[in-house]
Amino acid sequence: MTTAARLRGVIAAIPTPVTRSGEPDIERFMSLAQTLLDTGCDGLNVLGTTGEATSFGLDQRMELMTAAAVTLPLTRLMVGTGTSSIADTIRLTRHAAQLGFAGALILPPFYYKGVTDEGVIDYISRLAEATASNPVPLYLYHFPALSGVPFSADIVRELVSRFGVRIAGLKDSSGDMDYARSIAAIASDLAVFPSNEVSLLEARDGAFAGCISATASLNAPFCARAFHEGDERALGKAVAIRRLFDGLPLVPAVKHLIGVTRSDPEYSRVLPPLAYLDVTQVAELAARRGALS
């Protein structure tokens, strides 16, 4: 496993289309994924928060992973395999490794709150050891606002000390750029991905590996020009598109707008406990988009 093979650049946290019966809509997922890869995304984050991973069962997640492996370039895909159960996380991570995904994105164990650093370190250590025979790179997923369990700098530092380049990087959805910079400073080959497009020029300068963003599913061409060409105007357009979603429930709003842009409302379906945008929210999003145009 070499750092040269690792993910970098603009990575869309791709939503998972859902059928009327609540299953992953494989056909629509594949169509959206290919479009994103063809129009600016260097990679995709499959089955993350935007992909509603924790609302799907293990068999559903494995089905989508297996389908992706048939036609999509897995060297450009990381996949969320973290759960609150170490056994389930090991199972999903082994599946990701067997299929050939470029990385497994790992939530901390998120049910119990107030867990010690030692508890989180033990969880990730057990995962790393249980998957050592086929060592898919592990990316830590720091999203304390939802998980309630942070990957502190001390935790990351200890895991890098124990497992070296097996801890490939970290996705930071905290919005705390000082935190992101502190994690990037732990090791030169630790790939840190903030979740906000505004960081792309800083990433271009080498501070980060890129960004992983839900809204890259809608502004990928602008993000790509910002990251690869240093285009500040393109970055401004990407950030403006991101701001369309301020104050709205992000996943339903992103899925709704994907449905609008692809002229297919089936893309807007979400799984409980998420809900469709209400009429007022739909009107607000349409008005903001119209003003942006």
Kindly describe this structure:
The protein has helices at residues 26-38, 58-71, 86-99, 117-130, 144-147, 153-163, 177-184, 200-204, 216-229, 232-243, 250-261, 279-292, and strands spanning 9-13, 43-46, 77-80, 103-106, 138-142, 167-172, 191-194, 210-213. With 293 residues, the protein is of the alpha/beta class. The protein has one domain: TIM Barrel. Helix 4 (117-130) packs parallel to helix 6 and helix 9 (216-229) packs antiparallel against helix 10 (232-243). The radius of gyration is 18 Å and the shape is globular. The N and C termini lie far apart (45 Å). The model has no long low-confidence stretch (mean pLDDT 96).
In short:
By secondary structure, the protein is of the alpha/beta class. Helix content is 46%, strand content 12%. It has one domain (3-243): Alpha-Beta Barrel (TIM Barrel), CATH 3.20.20.70.
Topology:
Blueprint: E1 9-13, H1 26-38, E2 43-46, H2 58-71, E3 77-80, H3 86-99, E4 103-106, H4 117-130, E5 138-142, H5 144-147, H6 153-163, E6 167-172, H7 177-184, E7 191-194, H8 200-204, E8 210-213, H9 216-229, H10 232-243, H11 250-261, H12 279-292
Parallel strand pairs: 1-2, 1-8, 2-3, 3-4, 4-5, 5-6, 6-7
Helix pairs in contact: 2-3, 3-4, 4-6, 9-10
